[in-house]
Design goal:
By secondary structure, the chain is an alpha+beta fold. The chain has a single domain, classed as Pleckstrin-homology domain (PH domain)/Phosphotyrosine-binding domain (PTB) (PH-domain like). Helices cover 33% and strands 32% of the residues. It has 4 helices and 7 strands. The chain has a 7-stranded antiparallel beta sheet with strand order 4-3-2-1-7-6-5, covered by helices on one side. The longest helix has 19 residues. It is globular and about 55 Å long. This is Pleckstrin homology domain-containing family J member 1. It holds the Pfam family PH.
Length: 149
């Protein structure tokens, strides 16, 4: 994926949906868990050294799998590269579950499915397409409706 480094740094400075210092390991040979500030902003998970203002890495949370591994451990792996796995250890099981849920809701895919679901529910209740008032074209409405799950 292409990105503008300056825009990415600007995004990393935005208020986070969720942030915490947790232990993390990256998918390198011999990688160990290290304390990192982890910050969720839109669909990016930034990670920082605890004493630095700029991120040392960012994960785009698309086409990934968030898995609860143990009581207080979860991982993020990517569908195209399942061996590339990031592990996170939280202080408690509750904190772990909160992170898993927040990360699963952060992707474009989840938001798109939610939009389609709520659009269909509103249409059932009112008999009207809620997107019509915004001038969404027939073609765009068809695309939204074509991917129902």
């Amino acid at each position: 994926m292409r990105y503008n480094e300056r825009e990415l740094l600007s995004l990393a400075r935005q208020p986070a949906e969720k942030a915490a210092e947790i232990r993390m390991s990256v998918p390198k040979k011999g990688s160990v868990l290290k304390k990192r500030l982890v910050k969720l902003v839109v669909n990016f998970l930034f990670y920082f050294r605890t004493d630095e203002a700029e991120p040392i890495g960012a994960l785009l949370l698309e086409h990934c799998r968030v898995t609860k591994e143990e009581e207080n451990v979860f991982s993020i792996s990517f569908i195209e590269e399942p061996e590339r796995k990031y592990c996170f250890e939280c202080a408690t099981e509750e904190q772990c579950q909160e992170w898993v849920e927040a990360l699963r809701r952060a992707s474009y895919e989840f938001l798109r499915r939610s939009l389609i679901f709520y659009r269909n529910e509103i249409q059932k209740m009112t008999g009207k397409d809620p997107l019509e008032q915004y001038g969404i074209s027939e073609e765009a409405r068809f695309q939204l409706g074509a991917h129902r799950q």
